[in-house]
Each structure stands twice: as structure tokens, then as C-alpha cells.
């Protein structure tokens, strides 16, 4: 298979093709995450915070309860309440109670949160272009299909 992984991990061979593929996925995920984190840190956000803001923007002007936020996260955070608390402190999101069920706490993005996402967007778009510049449209589609084959069974659970 490829030589880049061998060079990156300073090895000559892998125990199996399966292991090589898994390691390639891990190295790639780490690379993408570090690039993404570097962009977000300029705006004082972590990846999970950014993920929550994007989720809530999709529900705007309504909001979501905590369990719905968790179910939509790329990497579900163990303590979404604390994460949301930090976003509330920064006035990027707000909590409110459902009109239909006063026991149900919802979270929604604020105008300040939307403006921050709008401000971040060009940097994220540039990062996405940089990351995918080595792939054709067909390769991107095929890669997405292949990666989905790996985790799609987990969606049935």
C-alpha cells in the first residue's frame, strides 16, 4: 500500500492490511483534527463547542434539548452541560424552557453565536479546500462512501 504511513510511523511494514488501513484512518483523523483545532483556537473555541454551535444554528430560532444535541454531535461529549455552560457564559447560546413542557430545558444559539459562526466560516472553508485539494470530486465521493461503510452498522444500534 502507501509509503506515507510507513514514513510517518517510521516503520517498514504492518502486521496486516487491516491494521494499515486503521492506522491510516487514525493518522488522517488526527491530522484533520489538529488543523481544525488550530483554526477554531483563533476564535477561542474547541471542536465540540463549534459542533454544538453548528447544531444549534441548524435548529435556529428554535433550540434542542441536551439529549438531541448529544445525538447530533460528531464526537458526543461526556459533559454537554458543562460545554453548554461555557457557551452560555460567552453569550453564544441561551437556555430557555419549552412552551409545551415547562420541565424541558432547551438551548438555542444567540445572534452573537450566529455572527461568530459567520466570522469563522471563511477560515473553515479555506481549510476544507486545503485538505481536499489533493482529491478529485470523484475521489471525495468514493472516500466518503468507503468511510461510511466502516461505521454505518453503528447507526442501526
Overall number of domains = 1
The CATH H-level homologous superfamily: Winged helix-like DNA-binding domain superfamily/Winged helix DNA-binding domain
Overall spatial form? elongated
Quickly give the CATH architecture: Orthogonal Bundle
Query: Which structural class do you get from the secondary structure elements?
Result: mainly alpha
CATH topology: Arc Repressor Mutant, subunit A
The biggest sheet amounts to: 2 strands, antiparallel
Stretches where pLDDT is under 50 for at least 5 consecutive residues are: none
Order of helices and strands: HHHHHEEHH
Give me the side-by-side strand order of the main sheet.
1-2
Straight-line distance between termini: 33 Å
Radius of gyration from CA coordinates: 19 Å
Structure description:
Residues 18-152 form the HTH marR-type domain. By secondary structure, the protein is mainly alpha-helical. It has one domain (4-124): Arc Repressor Mutant, subunit A. Helix content is 62%, strand content 6%. The protein has seven helices and two strands; from the N terminus they run αααααββαα. It has helices spanning 4-9, 17-41, 47-59, 66-72, 80-89, 111-132, 137-151; strands spanning 93-97, 105-109. The chain has a two-stranded antiparallel sheet. The model has no long low-confidence stretch (mean pLDDT 91).
Amino acid at each position: 500500500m502507501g509509503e506515507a504511513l510507513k514514513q510517518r510511523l517510521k516503520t517498514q511494514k504492518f502486521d496486516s492490511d487491516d491494521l494499515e488501513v486503521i492506522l491510516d484512518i487514525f493518522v488522517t483523523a488526527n491530522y484533520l483534527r489538529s488543523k481544525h483545532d488550530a483554526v477554531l483556537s483563533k476564535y477561542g473555541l474547541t471542536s465540540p463547542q463549534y459542533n454544538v454551535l453548528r447544531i444549534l444554528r441548524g435548529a435556529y430560532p428554535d433550540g434542542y434539548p441536551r439529549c438531541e444535541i448529544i445525538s447530533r454531535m460528531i464526537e458526543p461529549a461526556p459533559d454537554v452541560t458543562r460545554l453548554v455552560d461555557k457557551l452560555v457564559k460567552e453569550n453564544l447560546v441561551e437556555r430557555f424552557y419549552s412552551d409545551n413542557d415547562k420541565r424541558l430545558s432547551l438551548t438555542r444559539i444567540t445572534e452573537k453565536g450566529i455572527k461568530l459562526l459567520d466570522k469563522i466560516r471563511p477560515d473553515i472553508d479555506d481549510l476544507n479546500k486545503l485538505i481536499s485539494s489533493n482529491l478529485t470530486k470523484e475521489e471525495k465521493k468514493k472516500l466518503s462512501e468507503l468511510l461510511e461503510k466502516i461505521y454505518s452498522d453503528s447507526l442501526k444500534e
